[in-house]
Amino acid sequence: MADLTEDELLAEVLPLLAGPRRDRLGPGDDAAILESAGAIVATTDTMVRGRDWRDDWSSPEDVAAKVLIANLADVAAMGAVPTSILCTLVLDPQTPVDWVLRFARGLGEQCRRYAVSVAGGDLSSAPAGVAMVTIAAFGELPGDPVLRSGARPGHVLAVTGPLGRSGVGLALLEGASAGGPVGGELPAAGVAHHLRPSSPLGQGPIAAAAGASAMLDVSDGLSRDAARLARASGVVLRIDGSALAPDLNWAETYLPRDLARACVLNGGEEHSLLATFPNAASVPAYWRVLGRVETVPDGANPQVFLDERPLAEAGWDHFHPAR
Amino acid sequence: MADLTEDELLAEVLPLLAGPRRDRLGPGDDAAILESAGAIVATTDTMVRGRDWRDDWSSPEDVAAKVLIANLADVAAMGAVPTSILCTLVLDPQTPVDWVLRFARGLGEQCRRYAVSVAGGDLSSAPAGVAMVTIAAFGELPGDPVLRSGARPGHVLAVTGPLGRSGVGLALLEGASAGGPVGGELPAAGVAHHLRPSSPLGQGPIAAAAGASAMLDVSDGLSRDAARLARASGVVLRIDGSALAPDLNWAETYLPRDLARACVLNGGEEHSLLATFPNAASVPAYWRVLGRVETVPDGANPQVFLDERPLAEAGWDHFHPAR
User: Which residues take part in binding substrate (chains A, B) (predicted)?
Assistant: First the structure.
């Protein structure tokens, strides 16, 4: 990358990001202009090499797909439709130009797939060895936003998308690289969701239209994210353990039972959508009921139960990565 | 920072960022909601420790003020009024909590000063020794945006704000830390604009209303940014050397003539606004005329002249920081 100037590199990168022209003005000026009808949903999420990805596991295209979906899932979890992004790359000048171009090509492909445009961004240099990608994503709200705080006793808790797939993939990759219990070739289906998570983005606005009372995406693990929803709403969430059987069964095809269970309950970077609905009849197709919303007993705090037992928060914490 | 969980740290940081509630929803949900009347201006800019700031020169409050103004100047340079930001911190977990809290307090103060709200953000961990701050900033357009591409032959080139102040500050700091030509105590006025640049934000919309045909902010140096405007508009810009006398005189009170001249022509992080106007009568108060817009001669390229000589682009390039 040190062979090119910033402007020369941008001249190579920008054509790779061309997409649907939703915005009045794309990259190249001081700022982008996002069209909107009343309100814009905005979020941002960052990935750092060595913390959020490893170059020996993730291709530049994987990194692009993963940081994009993490952002778009946050937009969908508000009940919104993603429309555009800004992308910031902060890279060691010794980063191969090929890495940057593959990242940009991958990002462009994924953005076209989701009908999202790259409205702008920033390119900056990092200390030796450092690579960091930040996306800010924007979306349109077809109706009212769905916050985390609207769950009420009597409502139904439901999820769309799997639980624990990304965690299983990470455990398989870590096991393999530690020479651990997973021998031989890595099962592609087991690691796929970790390297390139998908998210049922279209279900966000569908849930909103169906009357979802609260919603978020599972980015730091079911136990931690469900607890956030419980606290924001001031309620108890009670998860029916039997509802997790499909996820546990899938995880146990790859991992020992205890580890499989930990992946389903605490695995992050899943980007499935977790929501509450006023009643079972309002839960849309492609969602499955996980449990119910209850009143916080006198003297107790909002929290999550798995059947009769409190579910400890054990998901991802950026500053305490031990799981 | 490693003594707190992410949620605990956020609980300390968020109250420091409280500001005008322009947005329907602030930090704490999956995404923020930005109110808008038709279109939102969006930009993003990053600062990395060791590249964009040094901890021995810049306090956490300085870093917050500097990255904020770099973003708000981009918004103003479109002719827009800044309204809100998202802020991303990517920090080594060993970063002192005090640094984070001082950064947040400084950012909150500056945001209130500019009537901008912190709508959300992200907190992530970095490899040892790394600290990085990204802001995405948003603004409202009172009228049509002012792009870089609208300068036409016959228009007048003007600037509001100084040129070279940040460059002089950097040269003084570098000279002092190299035991160089600057001895004794550093002149506070000389380094102030480098550590905490200001930007005439309000002049962005004023220039737009006055009919500015093109505009940008001087973030990478006059020679480089003027060349960008020239290329985007397909014109020649001719700067009158005598118009730079006030900047040169100020710079020469601190530095030898050659270095002073390089600071005025090439110094970055200045965040003054550079614009073209249809004629001298339309240049608003607090702007000074720097030169004029001319036709590109047949067979030549868009470029910038200083009096009769081409002005070489020598400003900041992230991947070739030598000046």
Answer: 52, 269, 316
Q: Where are the domains of chain B?
A: 6-140, 156-310
Close Cβ partners of B185 (under 8 Å, ≥ 6 residues apart): none
Cβ–Cβ under 8 Å, residues B143 and B208: yes
The third-level CATH classification (topology) of the domain covering B156-310 is Phosphoribosyl-aminoimidazole Synthetase; Chain A, domain 2 (3.90.650)
- Which residue in the set A25, A90, A93 is minimally distant from B145, CB to CB? A25
ipTM: 0.84
Q: B236-239 and B304-306 as β-strands: parallel, antiparallel, unpaired?
A: parallel
Q: Which amino acid is at B138?
A: F
For the stretch B249-265, pLDDT in tens is 999 999 999 999 999 99
Domain A6-140, CATH:
3.30.1330.10
Q: Cβ contacts of residue A24 below 8 Å, gap of 6+?
A: A33, A34, A35, B39, B145
On chain B, the residues whose CB falls within 8 A of the CB of A139 are 31
B52: contact with A, CB 8 A cutoff: yes
User: pLDDT tens digit string along B270-316?
Assistant: 999 999 999 999 999 999 999 999 999 999 999 999 999 999 998 66
A183 contact B CB<8A: no
Residue A313 marked as a ligand binder? no
